[in-house]
Amino acid sequence: MSAGLIGSTTPLVDRYDLALVDLDGVAYKGHEPIVHASDSLTEARGRGMRLVFVTNNASREPGSVADQLTGLGIATEPAEVMTAAQAAAQLLRTRLPEGAKVLVVGGAGLVTAVREAGYQVVTSADDEPDAVAQGFAPEVGWNQLAQAAYAIERGAWHVASNLDLSIPTAHGIAPGNGSLVAAVRAATGVTPDSAGKPAPTMYHMAVERAGAREALVVGDRLDTDLAGARSGGFAGLHVLTGVNSARDDVLAVPGERPHFIGADLRSLLEAHPEPEVGAEGWWTCREASARVVDGALELGRGSSTDDLDVVRAACAAAWAAVDAGGSVDPASVPELAVAEG
């Protein structure tokens, strides 16, 4: 698949039969809806696109997530939710026999997934667990982190549901599971194995479950959602409703680049133009243009920094410069805030 942006002359909903949709920052933010999410996903379903909600959140059970989505106007069944807790349980199966003891640090979703995988859930290092499964939950505190550290120091295998350093909430950006995992890692010196994004494990599980022909990853984070798409060989759509911005897209490292960029989930229902290179190094996307000269990004005369096509042209120019062995000065890249339509 292309290392840069790709185009689609037809709406993405008509090109891909399955969307692997992230939750926080895409379908909702904290407990609040995201504008256009419900209407766009409902229309996508009505036009034949199946949905699986794939989340690095391991604290909640699929049924709870489905209930929240349904309450926000996105009708969802538990089978349409794939969590990092389920992926962590699958990872445990690669090394541990059924019946092994697992110390779970996290919420109900992780406890349920580990039990359903056939393991005995324990809460203390004194129970001599074979592994520690760690996932985010708001109630995780020092004692649970300490028990995890004690068990890992005694030889337990450390499995993290994900390594997200932060999570978006209705109040702002808060510490994520990766920050809590970092505390245990700092105490033990042991780097855990991770089941969540950017590992593509959950994406492959979801595609296999759905029997999809061609899947599209939809996310708001470059280092997890879109990196997982790249590593798993899936096309990735970055929507600008969560953690990462359009400016982040321009400066993205190759392994985290999206294939498509949209302001929000309405972009599922739209065609996406592909930037083209022209004379003097200018990359154009419809009326927008950009190029890199001596490491500085230049936008075409008259280009508005709230135009999504400018973002696409800027990404194409910056990525081409980097792929050719050059660099792009971050100071030359403006914020590129995309105006809502």
From TrEMBL:
Chain ranges of the GCN5-related N-acetyltransferase-like domain: 288-330
Keywords linked to the UniProt accession: Hydrolase
Gene Ontology CC entries for this record: cytoplasm
UniProt keyword annotation of Hydrolase present: yes
GO MF annotation, one: phosphatase activity
Entry superkingdom: Bacteria
InterPro entries in the cross-refs: GNAT-like (IPR041065), HAD-like_sf (IPR036412), HAD-SF_hydro_IIA (IPR006357), HAD_sf (IPR023214)
Gene3D superfamilies for this protein: HAD superfamily/HAD-like
NCBIfam families in the cross-refs: HAD-SF-IIA (TIGR01460)
Protein's UniProt name: HAD-IIA family hydrolase
Annotated source species: Cellulomonas rhizosphaerae
